[in-house]
Amino acid sequence: MDIRLEQVGKRYDGLAALQSTSLHIASGQLVALLGPSGSGKTTLLRLIAGLLPVDEGRILFGGKDATRLSLRERRVGFVFQHYALFPHMSVFENIAFGLRSRPRALRPSNAEIERKVVELLELVQLAAYRDRHPAQLSGGQRQRVALARAMAIDPTVLLLDEPFGALDAKVRIELRRWLRELHDRTGFTTLFVTHDQEEALDLADRVVVMDRGRIEQDGNAEQVYGEPASAFVFDFLGRSNRLRGDVRDGVFSLPDISVTFPAADCPDGQADLFVRPHDLGLAAGNNGLRAEVDEVRRLAGRISLELAVPGQERRLLMDVSERELPLLPRRGEPIAVDLRRHRVFPVTA
Length: 349
Ligand code: ADP
Ligand code: MG
Description:
20 strands
């Protein structure tokens, strides 16, 4: 179902956990909500679920105002990081729970429940585990049960709050691939919360990046990674370098260094230049940014350098192939680097 937030906000003790936020999730979309801890992701999810009342704004489900509806009335499927499956119930009964606890008039017959749960067990590849109890399952299997349980009620939207957060890295990667395929088959409108950028970029068509209770950027994976809309997004997604300097008339300059960089879209004043480690290369001739090699590491055909730039607090990280740098530089050697791609953003408090 199509979900729309119109200027929805939430405060705790006068502090905004979610600033006035608008968001549209089209029916059938899989959207990742990505941000650091405390950025308001869970708050946003709980507001959509109806687990938390909004302070301002409206929430629409399928074009209808659902702001005052309860969790049950919204028919939302929810999976948390530590999802409490009922420990005394079998896998089958856990999945059937949402259907069995419907009011009598809306409750499906036992035969229908059986059919539905068996279908879901197949879907999450746990048919052989129907009579086991949660304690007899791995963490990944438990989260698949939790997902089947959320899907059993034919949810209007699936809200997944760091569902794989407690699992080890390998299982997480498998499960997110699996979830992606499952979504392609079932087409549930899904909002997936994570603080893991790789997970978000790998899983979703659309990534909504949050920071401090606000949406910083909303776009596809290529856009948020390749065309970050703010310094925060650039720094948060992928590895990055920051150089602090000043912009004047669309030109960025560093203190103590004569080289300048274009910064057409940045207003005059203090500014940060961001560049990814793999967008640094060796400069030809006497051009480029002059730095001193501080650290050299070599791994699997790649060379990682840490460079000291005069006047800069942060070291500059540079990743190049051995082909590009056949002579391994030594510590203390001068080096001149080119920036193939960079972005400049004004410094804000
Ligand atoms: P995230 O899920 O991105 O880690 P949350 O939505 O849980 O972030 O929290 C956003 C902000 O709201 C945080 O600053 C958090 O401390 C605050 N917050 C969340 N829940 C409560 C609560 N029940 N009472 C007071 N503050 C809260
Ligand atoms: Mg959270």
